[in-house]
Amino acid sequence: MQQITEIRWHARGGQGAVTAAKMVAEVALSQDKYFQAFPEYGPERSGAPIVAFTRISDEPIQIYSAIEHPDYVLVLDPTLLDVVDVTAGTSEGAVVIVNSEGACSELAGRSEMAGRKVYTVPATKIALETIKRAIPNTPLIGALAKVSGLFSLEGILEEVQTSLSKKFNDGVVNANLEAVNRGYEEVSDE
Amino acid sequence: MARKAITGNGAIALALKQVEPDVMAAYPITPQTEIAQNYAQYVANGDVVTEYIAVESEHSAMSAAIGSAAAGARTITATSSQGFALMWEMLFIAASLRLPITMPVITRALSGPINIHCDHSDSMGGRDCGWIQLYGEDAQEGYDNAIQAFRIAEHMDVRLPVMTMIDGFIISGAIGPVETLDDEQVKEFVGDYVAVNSLLNVEKPVTVGAFDSLGGWYFEHKIAQNRAMENAMDVIEEVGREFGELFGREYAHFKTHEVEDADIVLVAIGSAAGNVKTVVTKLRAEGRKVGVLKVRTFRPFPTEQIREALSGAKVIGVMDRSDSFGAQGGPLFTEVSAAMYGGESHPQIYNFIYGLGGRDIFPDDIEGAVEMLEKAAAGDTLAQQRHYLNVREG
Questions:
Q1: Residue ranges of chain B that CATH labels 3.40.50.920
Q2: Which residues, in sequence order, are bridge partners of residue B23?
Q3: A175 min Cα distance to partner chain B (Å)
Q4: CATH superfamily assigned to domain B2-247
């Protein structure tokens, strides 16, 4: 059976989940992998819970249905944990990475997290300190690289550099690079 | 050539840009909007010299496209769903005037109830309007078909409009890898536009859209249209073969996977064909004799080739993403059934309607369909011919 890594992103409209799913696709492209990135289509409103998906494989992907059993779940907003069942459809051993400043052990103790590998990364804090805006997507991509090993940190930094430098000045680009780096360093399962 | 991470819509807009037709007349509608928007951006940026006509409705879009094509310009538009429905009367006129307009259709359900998501009710509803119809599975096929459409439409043995479909949102809005061609490769492949009976040719004045009633040639006109459809059968293959020789991706009327020795064959169209293929590969590894035939050309329908390809199957399951109310089954089902009736073998044929209004079609749904067909193959004929997949209870 074809090996496909499936990722589900939970966020609120405006937090950059779709951009993050797209950025991961671009990284996959740059590393000659096959990929798909798509949002769950619906009325998108700033602040409302949204879901996006990414598939990655070494072979062409020919399945287009929504991801039911993700290997990785990324939660861009910790307040969603009480609103959405973020572990729905996941098997034991699935990885959950939550944007949170709280202790990982606290989150891991929640009933829906039983058997899942839980990580936290203070992505909003990092974003506020680097890019000066509460958009936690780039630190989370760094965290995903570290935890999953799907991509090298260098590959992501290169991609962020290329894609952002088309639109933004060096200051913004460097802040985002730092955000990815810090996400990579600060993700923790403790 | 380049490998890009791009949405289905983005890929198609790029293909149209690389062809750089004379006129684009379009009205934005979900989920086609990105095509109209990107193309308008290309025009605004000066990337193309195309005349962009921002019309007030799809009826006007097709009317403007007809006027433009009759005047002798290479002309395109794009639409979805209600927009397609609003074009309805003009679609027939474009085809009967033998105008080689090309149009990507980003398939979407028709109201009501109101729904913006994917099914094939729009394009399948237009299957008898005289346009050639090519369906793509993914963004790559959407891109490649959009380019080949010009060669097919403009071929002197054909001169018919061509619509190329991809699934709304599922493909149009998803980012995937697409191998794009260089602008020069595309321009060279489609070649220069040759206008026929141009309204603007004052040396040879013609009347377009004349009255042709009792005592006239209306009937013969329709027969000529159907002959052009027959001619298109070979032209679509020739163009697909040449595309393959030049760029490494060959296209035919349909594609089979594990069909040769299969007892059970699923016939699918659009993105679901990929889902089915993924399931077939898994079931084959378990030793189950299942195959899939993915239809690309729906008009003209490759009756004889499909009959031949399916002749070894014991049971056929045809998957339709639109229903045909009061008919024996969905459009693809009735077409495949009619094709098999004319053959030697008479396999059992069942219809699976799925995905209406964007309802997802999961691997488990497809495996469930295969299990039913396996029972039928074992001699346990199914009571119902038409089945619905992934339907809510109650």
A1: 254-388
A2: B51, B75
A3: 24
A4: Thiamin diphosphate (ThDP)-binding fold, Pyr/PP domains (3.40.50.970)
- Range list for CATH 3.40.50.970 in chain B: 2-247
**pTM assigned to the model:** 0.96
Cβ–Cβ below 8 Å for A36 and B175: yes
Nearest residue of chain B to residue A19 (CA atoms): B175
Fold of B254-388: Rossmann fold (3.40.50)
Return mean pLDDT, chain B: 97
| CA-closest candidate to residue B229, choices B351, B345, B130 | B130
Residue type, A87: T
Which among B278, B306, B311, B281 is positioned nearest to B293, based on CA atoms?
A: B306
- Residue B283 and residue B290 in contact, taking contact as beta carbons nearer than 8 Å: yes
What is the sign of the dihedral through the CA atoms of A110, A112, A118 and A121? negative
pLDDT at A1: 60
Q: What ipTM describes this predicted complex?
A: 0.92
Confidence of residue A66 (pLDDT cuts 50, 70, 90): very high
Chain B nearest-CA distance from A65, in A, is 6
How many Å lie between the alpha carbon of B147 and the closest alpha carbon of chain A?
A: 22
* Closest partner CB to A37 (pick from B117, B137, B174): B174
pLDDT at A21: 84
Between chains, do B5 and A34 touch, taking CB under 8 Å as contact? no
Whole-angstrom CA distances from B155 to B15, B68, B70, B230 are: 19, 18, 16, 13
Report the half-sphere exposure of A138 (CA within 13 A, side-chain side): 30
Query: Tokens 């691997």, residue?
Result: B363
Partners of residue B139 in chain A, C-beta under 8 Å: none
**Cβ of B137 and A22 within 8 Å?**
no
Between chains, do B278 and A2 touch, taking CB under 8 Å as contact? yes
Q: What is the DSSP letter of B105?
A: E
Question: What tokens does A11 get?
Answer: 């966020």
Q: Are B22 and B75 in contact (CB under 8 A)?
A: yes
| CA A39/CA B170 separation, integer angstroms | 10
* Cis before A139? omega within 30: no
**Which of B175, B176, B361 faces A65 most closely, judged by CB atoms?**
B361
HSE-CB at B336 with a 13 A cutoff on CA atoms is: 32
Chain A residue numbers touching B294 (CB-CB < 8 A):
none
Between A and B, how many residue pairs show a Cβ–Cβ distance under 8 A? 68
CATH number (3.40.920.10, 3.40.50.300, 3.10.340.11, 3.10.490.10) of A4-186 reads 3.40.920.10
Question: What is the C-alpha separation between B133 and B126, in angstroms, rounded?
Answer: 9
